[in-house]
Design brief:
The complex is a heterodimer. By secondary structure, chain A is an alpha+beta fold. Chain A has two helices and four strands. The longest helix of chain A has 11 residues. The model of chain A has no long low-confidence stretch (mean pLDDT 90). In chain B, a hairpin with a 5-residue loop joins strand 29 and strand 30. In chain B, 34% of the residues are buried. The chains are: A alpha+beta, B alpha+beta.
């Protein structure tokens, strides 16, 4: 069975796994630790598609009504039950 | 200051019987409070060791006085265990997932491993739920057959026992589980199995959910009050506790006397009822316990729940001092940044002022005047003097007063509470406070009368009117608060709304009508008329007259308006009164004078109306704020409102019943139009009834007919409006208001003079009422215009009875809609505010929660403050181009 790669859909923004180096820089720029980042569940279809594992940080570049293009970062976490 | 701490974990547990006994200072056994002499019964509910509520007495337990003693818990030993209503869900779950005999979890080792991944973190572990266990299975440990357990509200559990009878058939029988049975079963559940269920047995053993001992809250929690007639009135909780103890004692006596099982069971149930209602008096399936007067008692859970409960009412809600509230009324002579307050309020409220070497003498003067200020002309005084040691001296006016003595006592370091006077800054607020402009700061103006006065131009941000609205006023008490009020909360700082990036303050109805009358077409004024118009604006000198005829100088209406504009405004746009002609004449001559051209602060052509000065529109105001800032904008609004009021006074503006009169010819035309329309409708109905109607794609013939009829009648109504408006011109005030955008629309005028038109419910013609007809006045199945709510009369000509009824139906729908919308959006707003209230934009431009967690990496993704944006865009390109080129682009 061929599965749809959600990342190819035009309404799904670009998800990229960040390198450790980039993550370190990110945390320094915003003067935060990893738990200050927004979260995303490990079983999110886009996360599964780009192959990120809990602990990875994902860079999401999406179209924005106000700014044209907006970047955000999310930490992949395990989804708790319920 | 202590630095903020991170919460590591929160542990929720259940109070154990041992803990209850340990903290108890008194075993309560006497079901009463005070004896006839007014002394508390020992071991009663008001036992002196439970705390003090009477002033002067000392606590028997801690020896402290009332106010210092926090109160102490007592306890009641229950004759038999009773279920805690708050834990019935948990009890049900535990009874269903554990063995009725050995108490083990009804899963074997493999299943446990499959369902619960305890992993390394026991707190986020996945726990086992009711669904994971199959019904009526056999215990994997002791092999006992399990039965179904039913929960019956509010507190009983029934086990359905299935047994193989001697005849080989399955017998079902119900067995009620007593609280004692349940407790016994819960006791048997091993600690390790509880952890799998997400329960920490150290702090919450399940059997503790079945009460054997009941804590008695301290008297400070349930104080009795003494009524005017000297009678004591006890708190609802005390009443309920009296019931519990009385039944409990009777239960014990019966038990000791060896009463029959039936009586014991009855008493047990009664005890359960009392304990249940003591904890929660709104449990489903349980009649609420009532006071003698019939009012339901307010017991423990009612104290916490709901809008007036402990959380929403007492902890989140705050009451404040230094606030005032009264009715509001308009005063167009005030600036928009001012508020008129009654002298009585100004005398009562105060601002603390520090006494320094520099102001010592001034302060002495204030104190000598004291709290007495009989008229507006008298200087303000002071109400209190605060000494550095924290003592407070109340100033008393008059011969026997202390003002002169206190005035001599003061020295630097003291503080005095000065009465309010003109120019003090205050916060002004109207509920519901839906956006930040609901609280703005104004400078006060002390006035006669008993109402707050405000400039009608600031009504839109508060959403206020003067039909009896009340508003609140707060006096900032510190220098920081006053500075923030001045710099951030001031009215002029809030002219631009962050909601849409445009001005929310501006001209109201009369201002727009007035400025429209003034600026429409070209008019010439003599010197006295011109000065009359601009009398109350900040005008310094007359401009050059626009023309001189027969040696008399004349000034134009456009010049009058230009007087209040800054000299560098360049704008070009279409006004509200633009009729969208094709082709548009633009810069040349517009027949409606609807193309506004402002060059170097001079109105060259065009009419000023809603688009230019209206609240939530205000194109000129917007430009002035960008060019000259908020202070100039405030002055502009003040000038504008004064100019427009003068203009409307110069021309006069009124409306009467005969303003809706049309000519004979028009009435005939309207009659013809409506007759034709009704005939047309009848025709279509005929076609439909003969079955010749061609349905539209995707619609039934009935729907098609309805749509055609609606369309036809709507067109007819519009046609009558056109006929009416052809007859009514700018000499008609309603037309002026509609065209300028001040209030109302041409549709309203058409309904007054021409025809009200089709009444609708949910966008369709009115169909409900009697069987196959709307009213008994019509034949069954009549599909005609008049039978389904078409009103052919106008408000002027008056409605006939059936029309009146249909109109009432249509009107009611509007009212219901408004009521539903406000309640729904209010709740929506509450939820949104609760979710967003602690977010703020940090200095690095990120949006963060109080814990420093990032919500948005750049505020709004573009980092733009909407209140500083140009209607949402970061740069106002059109405005800049116009300013530079000084011509339309």
């Amino acid at each position: 069975m061929t599965r749809l790669n959600v990342l190819l859909h035009e309404m799904v923004p670009d998800h990229q796994i960040m390198t450790d180096e980039d993550v370190k820089n990110l945390l320094v720029t915003f003067d935060i630790t990893e738990d200050h980042l927004p979260k995303i569940y490990h079983d999110d279809p886009a996360v599964k598609a780009c192959g990120a594992k809990p602990g990875n940080v994902i860079m999401i570049v999406r179209k924005s009504q106000t700014a044209g293009e907006a970047t955000s970062y999310r930490l992949v976490v395990r989804r708790p039950k319920k | 200051m202590t630095s903020p701490k991170r919460i590591g974990k929160i542990e929720f547990g259940i109070l154990s019987p041992k803990a209850i006994r340990d903290m108890s200072v008194c075993k309560v056994i006497w079901p009463d409070t005070y004896d006839d002499d007014g002394f508390p019964y020992p071991k009663g509910l008001m036992d002196p060791s439970l705390g003090v509520i009477d002033p002067g007495l000392r606590c028997k337990t801690c020896g402290q006085k009332q106010g210092d003693c926090p109160g102490h818990f007592g306890h009641i030993d229950l004759a038999k265990p009773v279920i805690h209503v708050g834990y019935t869900r948990l009890i049900r779950k535990l009874l269903r997932v554990t063995c009725r005999d050995c108490g083990r979890l009804l899963l074997d080792k493999e299943e446990i491993e499959r369902f619960s991944a305890l992993e390394d973190d026991p707190y986020s572990a996945e726990t086992i739920g009711e669904k994971d266990i199959k019904k009526e299975r056999i215990c994997p440990y002791c092999g006992d057959q399990q039965f179904k357990i039913n929960f019956e509200k509010p507190t009983s559990f029934v086990e359905i026992v299935t047994e193989m009878g001697e005849d080989g058939k399955v017998h079902k029988s119900e067995r009620k589980l007593t609280s004692a049975d349940i407790r016994e079963r819960l006791e048997k559940i091993p600690d390790d199995d509880l952890r799998l269920l997400g329960i920490d047995p150290e702090v919450a053993r399940p059997e503790w959910t079945v009460l054997t001992v009941l804590p008695v809250p301290p008297v400070t929690v349930r104080p009795s009050i003494i009524l005017e007639n000297g009678q004591r009135s006890e708190d609802d909780l005390t009443h309920k506790l009296v019931d519990i103890i009385r039944i409990n004692q009777r239960f014990k006596e019966n038990q000791d006397a060896g009463a029959p099982q039936l009586i014991i069971e009855d008493l047990w149930e009664l005890l359960q009822y009392h304990v249940t209602t003591y904890l929660d008096n709104e449990v489903a399936g349980c009649p609420p316990a009532r006071h003698r007067s019939g009012r339901p008692l307010k017991t423990l859970s009612q104290r916490l729940k709901g809008k007036d409960g402990r959380f929403r009412g007492s902890l989140s809600g705050k009451r404040v001092n230094f606030s005032a509230r009264t009715v509001i009324s308009p005063d167009p002579n005030l600036s928009i940044g001012e508020v008129g307050i009654p002298l009585a309020i100004a005398n009562e409220m105060s601002v603390p002022v520090r006494v320094t070497k520099q102001n010592l003498e001034d302060m002495r003067v204030l104190i000598r005047i004291g709290p007495h200020r009989p008229t507006l002309r008298d200087p303000c005084g002071a109400n209190y003097v605060n000494r550095p040691d924290g003592r407070r001296i109340r100033l008393i006016a008059g011969e026997e007063g202390n003002c002169d003595t206190v005035a001599e006592m003061i020295e630097p370091g003291w503080k005095i509470d000065r009465q309010l006077r003109d120019g003090d800054i205050v916060l002004f607020n109207r509920q519901p406070s839906l956006h930040r402009m609901s609280i703005m700061s104004h400078h006060i103006k002390v006035m006669n009368g008993r109402t707050f006065r405000l400039n009608p131009a600031v009504c839109p941000p508060y959403n206020a009117d003067f039909d009896g609205d009340e508003m609140n006023l707060h006096v900032p008490q510190t220098e920081e608060a006053r500075a923030e009020a001045e710099l951030l909360v001031a009215v002029q700082e809030n002219i631009l709304s962050p909601r849409f990036g445009g001005p929310i303050i501006g001209g109201l109805h009369d201002h727009i009508s007035g400025i429209f009358l003034l600026t429409n077409q070209l008019k010439w004024y003599t010197k006295s008329e011109f000065l009359y118009l601009l009398k109350y604006t900040e005008m310094e000198h007359l401009p050059e007259p626009g023309k001189v005829e027969n040696g008399i100088p004349y000034w134009s209406n456009k010049q009058a308006f230009s007087m209040i504009l800054p000299k560098d405004v360049n704008m070009f746009y279409k006004a509200t009164c633009c009729r969208n002609c094709d082709p548009c004449t633009k810069n040349t001559f517009c027949p409606n004078d609807a193309f506004v051209r402002i060059v170097d602060g001079e109105l060259i052509s065009g009419t000023i109306d809603k688009k230019s000065v209206g609240a939530m529109d205000g194109a000129i105001l917007n430009r002035i704020i960008r060019l000259h800032g908020t202070q100039r904008a405030k002055e502009y609004i003040d000038d504008l409102t004064k100019l427009s009021i003068r203009a409307i006074m110069l021309y006069g503006f009124s409306y009467g019943i005969n303003d809706t009169d049309l000519g004979k010819e028009e009435y005939k035309q309207i009659r013809d139009v409506l007759d034709t329309a009704e005939r047309d409708v009848a025709n279509r109905i005929n076609i439909f009834e003969q079955g010749h109607l061609e349905p539209m794609p995707g619609r039934t013939p009935e729907e098609t007919l309805e749509m055609q009829v609606m369309k036809e009648l709507g067109k007819a109504r519009d046609r009558t409006g056109d006929i009416a408006s052809r007859h009514l011109g700018f000499e008609n005030s309603a037309v002026v208001m509609a065209v300028s955008g001040a209030r109302g629309s041409m549709l309203n005028i058409a309904q007054m003079a021409g025809c009200i038109g089709q009444q609708a419910v949910r966008g369709e013609r009115i169909v409900r009422g009697y069987e196959d007809r709307t009213l008994p006045h019509f034949k069954r199945g009549d599909k005609g215009a008049d039978a389904h709510g078409f009103v052919r009369n106008s408000y002027k000509s008056g409605l006939n009875p059936t029309e009146f009824f249909f109109h009432a139906i249509g009107g009611r729908e509007g009212l219901v809609d408004t009521a539903v919308r406000t309640s729904q959006s209010g709740y929506l707003q509450r939820r949104m505010i609760n979710a967003l209230q602690d977010l703020k934009v940090a200095y690095d431009g990120t949006v963060r929660s109080t814990g420093g967690k990032i919500i948005q990496f750049v505020y709004g993704e573009d980092g733009t403050d909407p209140a500083k944006s140009a209607s949402g865009l970061p740069v106002d390109v059109k405005g800049i181009a116009e300013s530079v080129l000084k011509e339309e682009i």
